[in-house]
């Protein structure tokens, strides 16, 4: 949608309160609380993951309709490999099923789909194949970019960017925030404006560490499988009321500096 019009890091360099009153350009969700949702119903954790599918589709549509240009969803972290094998296997199958089922809808809605992470050899090749197919199918879409963070770790991305920079032979003195960011995966992705973490947990859990540097945060109590379009719109409304200063002062607060 707004891809390519400004540099990925324009927000942090830009005018004070640049995001105020606007729809956030890039919203990132930490989809948390599936296990607790299931536990509340005396169901296995996997039932919570299955129930999350409806929320994912609802939020994608809500974001697109609201004019969000970039939506990122945290689906599986590098730390989630610590979970029981049976839960991991279930998640791999579920993601595959969701992709196959919803690929036509995502494409019809003009959504470009990308997967961030995806380096671990434990990812089943059939899943990797379906993901590659979805990315190819939707590559030219421009209504919204959906980034699914899967086998993603923010620190790993930063380490990989550092390796890539060193390999490129760049002089240490030539490394700037912009040149560094250009070595991150999907480096055209703009900084995150708003992070939504459901379930009341208030931590980042290694999610897009570079890109969230100046994001606004909201922590709805609702568990991810119960989160719906109206909850998403409430988060956008909370964002609209925030004053983003990026370390500066608001124009109408400049007056107090005279002696
Ligand atoms: C988020 O829900 C989904 C994934 C991390 C894959 P959780 O599975 O973390 O649910 P809780 O936090 O245990 O409730
Ligand atoms: C973060 O949630 C990862 C995803 C939502 C995919 P977790 O539930 O795994 O994170 P922690 O363990 O609470 O930090
Ligand atoms: Mg969790």
| Succession of helices and strands | HEHHEHEHEHHEEH
Largest sheet, spatial ordering of strands? 3-4-2-1-5-6
Give me the number of helical elements: 8
CATH architecture: 3-Layer(aba) Sandwich
In what range is the share of β-strand residues? 5-15%
Instruction: Provide the residue-averaged pLDDT.
Output: 92
Task: Please describe the topology of this protein.
Blueprint: H1 10-13, E1 26-30, H2 34-40, H3 45-66, E2 70-77, H4 85-108, E3 111-117, H5 125-138, E4 144-152, H6 154-167, H7 177-181, E5 194-197, E6 216-218, H8 229-241
Parallel strand pairs: 1-2, 1-5, 2-4, 3-4, 5-6
Helix pairs in contact: 2-3, 3-4, 3-8, 4-5
The protein binds 3-methylbut-3-enyl trihydrogen diphosphate (IPE) (2 copies) and magnesium ion (MG).
Describe the structure.
The protein is an alpha/beta fold. It has one domain (19-244): Undecaprenyl pyrophosphate synthetase (3-Layer(aba) Sandwich), CATH 3.40.1180. The protein has helices spanning 10-13, 34-40, 45-66, 85-108, 125-138, 154-167, 177-181, 229-241; strands spanning 26-30, 70-77, 111-117, 144-152, 194-197, 216-218. Strand 3, helix 5 and strand 4 (144-152) form a beta-alpha-beta unit. Helix 2 (34-40) packs across helix 3, helix 3 (45-66) packs across helix 8 (229-241) and helix 4 packs parallel to helix 5 (125-138). The longest helix is centred in the middle third of the chain and has 24 residues, at 85-108. The radius of gyration is 19 Å and the shape is globular. Mean pLDDT is 92; it is low at 1-19. Residues 30-32, 74-77, 80, 201, 203, 205 line the site of one 3-methylbut-3-enyl trihydrogen diphosphate. One 3-methylbut-3-enyl trihydrogen diphosphate (IPE) is lined by residues 30-32, 74-77, 80, 201, 203, 205.
């Amino acid at each position: 949608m707004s891809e390519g019009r400004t540099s990925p890091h324009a927000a942090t360099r830009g005018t004070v309160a640049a995001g105020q009153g606007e729809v956030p350009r890039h919203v990132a969700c930490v989809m948390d609380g599936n296990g607790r949702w299931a536990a509340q119903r005396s169901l296995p954790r996997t039932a919570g993951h299955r129930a999350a599918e409806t929320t994912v589709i609802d939020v994608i549509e809500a974001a697109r309709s609201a004019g969000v240009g970039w939506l990122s969803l945290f689906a599986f972290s590098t730390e989630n490999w610590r979970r029981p094998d049976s839960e991991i296997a279930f998640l791999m199958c579920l993601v595959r099923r969701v992709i196959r089922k919803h690929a036509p809808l995502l494409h019809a809605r003009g959504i470009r789909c990308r997967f961030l992470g995806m380096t671990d050899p434990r990812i089943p090749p059939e899943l990797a194949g379906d993901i590659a197919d979805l990315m190819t199918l939707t590559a030219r879409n421009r209504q919204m970019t959906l980034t699914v963070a899967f086998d993603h770790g923010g620190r790993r991305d930063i380490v990989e960017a550092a390796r890539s920079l060193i390999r490129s032979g760049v002089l240490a003195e030539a490394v700037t925030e912009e040149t560094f960011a250009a070595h991150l995966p999907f480096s055209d992705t703009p900084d995150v404006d708003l992070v939504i973490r459901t379930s009341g947990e208030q931590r980042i859990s290694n999610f897009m560490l570079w890109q969230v540097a100046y994001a606004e945060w909201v922590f709805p109590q609702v568990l991810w499988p119960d989160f719906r379009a109206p909850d998403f719109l409430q988060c956008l409304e909370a964002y609209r009321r925030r004053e983003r200063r990026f370390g500066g002062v608001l124009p109408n607060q400049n007056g107090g500096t005279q002696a």
